[in-house]
UniProtKB/TrEMBL annotation:
This is ABC transporter ATP-binding protein. PROSITE patterns: ABC_TRANSPORTER_1, ABC_TRANSPORTER_2. Pfam families: ABC_tran (PF00005). It comes from Gordonia jinhuaensis. InterPro entries: AAA+_ATPase, ABC_transporter-like_ATP-bd, ABC_transporter-like_CS, ABC_transpr_LolD-like, MacB-like_ATP-bd, P-loop_NTPase. Keywords: ATP-binding, Nucleotide-binding, Transport. GO terms for cellular component: plasma membrane. It comes from the Bacteria. Residues 13-287 form the ABC transporter domain.
């Protein structure tokens, strides 16, 4: 199950000794407790655990949405010349440059200003939430094009617009929506809207993909199709992926699986993963 990576591979995400607390009356409650996590490019890591255990907090910290109390969170930004091509803009480069390097460097999120952190999220991270959160007045292809144009100059060159359009078409075709790219969200099924959501998250060729319960609103068949799609797209796009899920069905297909309880993250063994997928068999072995 676990993917073998080169010892010299730089993790796309590296979280070291990360602790996050929130006010709770006269005290504080711990959401993340000394979390250690590294995810390599193209690697898919699943995180399971009960509601309220800290999974969403983990994604928020990894995505630079919340700054932890202590610890280090680093993102290896994708080099534009290698991954983004024509889609990379001056704004993409400036996020890494302003934070102390160039595209392809390791950027520590805690050292960024809010503006710099927003640029890194926009240009190097992809988010897939439980709900697709599509703009009702935009077609499927326009959802992707708008994402690529965020933060750009008001007047775009014809070449830039064409590159964005071609990238959007290619992604929608890859997720199986070639015949639906000019439809509005209201004309798409729940599974199709989530496919648009996934394609949109990959529009800027992110180094890191953060996925929060993408199948919670779908039936089993459509949910399985979405997981299949996420695995395939993460591999082909070489995006490090953290998948938060309550569904154990596909855990054996992940490169690593972690369980989170009370803010503590623990890697699961192959036997523990099998026990989650087949609880009765696991109970029998314990007995």
């Amino acid at each position: 199950m676990t993917m073998t990576t080169s010892p010299t591979t730089i993790p796309a995400l590296d979280m070291s000794a990360v602790t996050l607390t929130f006010p709770d009356g006269a005290g504080r409650v711990t959401a993340l407790d000394d979390v250690e996590l590294a995810v390599a490019p193209g690697e898919i890591v699943a995180v399971t655990g009960p509601s309220g255990s800290g999974k969403s907090s983990l994604l928020a910290v990894a995505g630079g949405l919340i700054r932890p109390d202590s610890g280090r969170v680093s993102i290896a930004t994708a080099p534009g010349a290698e991954s983004g091509g024509d889609l990379e803009s001056a704004a993409v480069e400036s996020a890494a440059v302003e934070s102390g390097g160039v595209p392809g460097d390791v950027v520590e999120l805690g050292a960024l200003s809010r503006r710099q952190s927003a640029r890194v999220r926009r240009d190097h991270l992809g988010f897939v939430f439980q709900q697709s959160n599509l703009v009702g007045s935009l077609t499927a292809i326009e959802q992707l094009e708008v994402t690529a144009h965020l933060g750009q100059h008001l007047v775009l060159s014809r070449g830039r617009r064409r590159a964005v359009h071609d990238r959007a078409r290619a992604l929608l075709t890859e997720v199986g929506l070639a015949e639906h790219m000019h439809k509005l969200p209201g004309q798409l099924s729940g599974g199709q809207r989530q496919r648009v959501n996934i394609a949109r998250s990959l529009m800027n060729d992110p180094a890191l993909l953060l996925v929060d319960e993408p199948t919670s609103a779908l039936d089993q068949q459509r949910g399985s199709e979405i997981i299949d799609l996420l695995i395939r797209m993460s591999r082909t796009q070489n995006a490090a992926t953290i998948l938060v899920t309550h569904d154990p069905t596909h855990l054996h297909r992940m490169d690593a699986v972690y369980d989170m309880v009370d803010g503590r993250l623990r890697a699961l063994s192959v036997d523990e993963i099998a026990a989650q997928q087949h609880p009765s068999a696991g109970a029998a072995r314990v007995a």
